[in-house]
Amino acid sequence: MTSYRPAQRLLHWFVALCIPILLVLGLWMTARASANLWDDQTNLLYGLHKALGFTVLWLMLLRLFFKLRTAAPAYPASLTPIHILVAKSMHGLLYALLFAVPLLGWAGVTAYPALITVAGYHLPAMPWVTQDPALAKQLFELHGTLAFVLVALIVCHVAAALGHLLFKRDGVFERMWPGKSVKTP
Ligand code: HEM
Fold it and tell me: Is 97 in the pocket of ligand 1 (CB under 6 A)?
């Protein structure tokens, strides 16, 4: 068995880097908004959050394309069918949330409407979403809640990955690590 394709590994680590940045931006900007601090800094934080979150959405589409087009490398023989089922379910949930969270954010800013990001650049409005501030509020609430569910799943995902790297040492971590492709037992 070999590693994931280099493009898949690159996308994985780039999205992995974007999530904590989006989390910090999201919490920071909403804390400033709650404190009624509507200045250039708050607008910049919102703009960066929206632009980066929208980028993640497109990168996830690219990841899905690769996932559907290329078979994942086989798991090492040491993994039981239950392990594999849990791993695959976890990855499916992560994909679902990595689509749902940015889609809800985009739908929210379309309904609000607040499509401006940075340097005067506006996001396109999400098709079929009408301008409705009450709907926007609900979408943002769901967006925030699912973002925290996503973080909880990512913590489990990282713990499992580190378990493979440090304790099982079965090559599962290395097949997603950038650099030379590896073979696992
Ligand atoms: C994976 C991508 C994303 C993650 C992980 C994420 C995460 C977060 C988090 C943690 C918050 C703070 C929630 C709270 O304090 O309750 C937040 C708020 C927000 N996000 Fe995102 N976000 C993502 C994508 C997006 C996108 C694509 C947009 C819009 C294009 C967006 C627009 C917003 C807005 C406007 C808020 C403030 C909502 C409010 O004021 O209640 N987000 N996001």
Answer: no
Q: Where are the domains of the chain?
A: 6-176
Provide long-range contacts, Cβ within 8 A and 24+ apart, for 29-35: 30/144
17 lines ligand 1 (CB under 6 A): no
Largest Cα separation within the chain, whole Å, is: 56
Please name the residue whose Cα sits nearest to atom 11 of ligand 1.
26
Q: Tell how far the Cα of 86 is from the centroid of ligand 1, in angstroms.
A: 28
**C-beta separation of 73 from 1 below 8 A:** yes
Using a cut of 0.90, tell me whether the model's pTM lies above it: yes
State the angle between helix axes of 133-163 and 6-34 in degrees (0 to 180), rounded to the nearest 10.
130
SS3 160: helix
Q: Which atom of ligand 1 is found nearest the CA of 54? A: 27
What whole-number percentage of the chain has pLDDT above 90? 90
Residue 144 CB less than 6 A away from ligand 1 = yes
Fold of 6-176: Fumarate Reductase Cytochrome B subunit (1.20.950)
What does the pLDDT read at residue 182? Answer: 65
